[in-house]
UniProtKB/TrEMBL annotation:
This is GNAT family N-acetyltransferase. The lineage of its organism: Bacteria, Bacillati, Actinomycetota, Actinomycetes, Kitasatosporales. Pfam families: Acetyltransf_1. Residues 7-173 form the N-acetyltransferase domain. InterPro entries: Acyl_CoA_acyltransferase (IPR016181), GNAT_dom (IPR000182).
């Protein structure tokens, strides 16, 4: 299957959150169906509201006809409050876009959807770098991000009940992986 033939990308901002909030929650519930009894995953609506309310919130949803395949979203970090700071030296330009979520529903995994969403979200971003976290229990996902130009700078557990995450950063614009092609 050629993902370009079946994907429609729609972009959203903070102003659109009310209209896409339930879609984001529903895709998450499908993507993490086997983990929805976990309190951390049941709090996902709170995370949607927190991220969606941030200034500069950006979201890209990929559709197969009218069916949401997955999405990517994030927001610029507040200057001086970037969450990667404990793990690395201050770069010349610390402006950061925090990629909070990149998820694809099971039916569309391993078809290039995550690459399309990732590229669409970060294309043209004005920040100097992008930061994200990846559950350390998923080394293949970490490897995928590394193939896109990210590097691991540390590990963090932001909430007592959250997984241990690899903190990863990349310079923008990305020059390897999908964003460089």
């Amino acid at each position: 299957m050629d993902i370009a033939d079946v994907t429609e990308l729609r972009s959203y901002t903070t102003e659109d959150l009310a209209s896409i909030r339930q879609l984001l929650i529903d895709v998450h519930a499908d993507a993490f169906a086997d983990q929805m009894d976990d309190e951390f995953h049941r709090r996902f609506p709170w995370f949607v509201d927190q991220w969606g309310g941030r200034e500069g919130f950006a979201c890209v949803v990929g559709y197969d006809t009218d069916e949401p395949m997955g999405y990517a979203y994030g927001a610029p970090s507040a200057a001086g409050r970037e969450w990667w700071r404990p793990f690395m030296a201050e770069p010349a330009d610390p402006s950061t876009f925090s990629l909070s979520e990149l998820m694809v529903r099971p039916r569309w995994r391993k078809q290039g959807v995550s690459e399309v969403l990732h590229k669409a979200l970060l294309e043209g971003r004005p920040e100097a770098m992008v930061a994200l976290s990846v559950d350390t229990a998923h080394p293949k996902v970490q490897g995928l991000y590394e193939s896109w130009g990210y590097r691991k700078v540390g590990e963090s557990r932001p909430f007592a009940d959250s997984p241990l995450y690899a903190v990863m950063v990349a310079d923008l614009p990305l020059t390897t992986g999908t964003a460089g092609s």
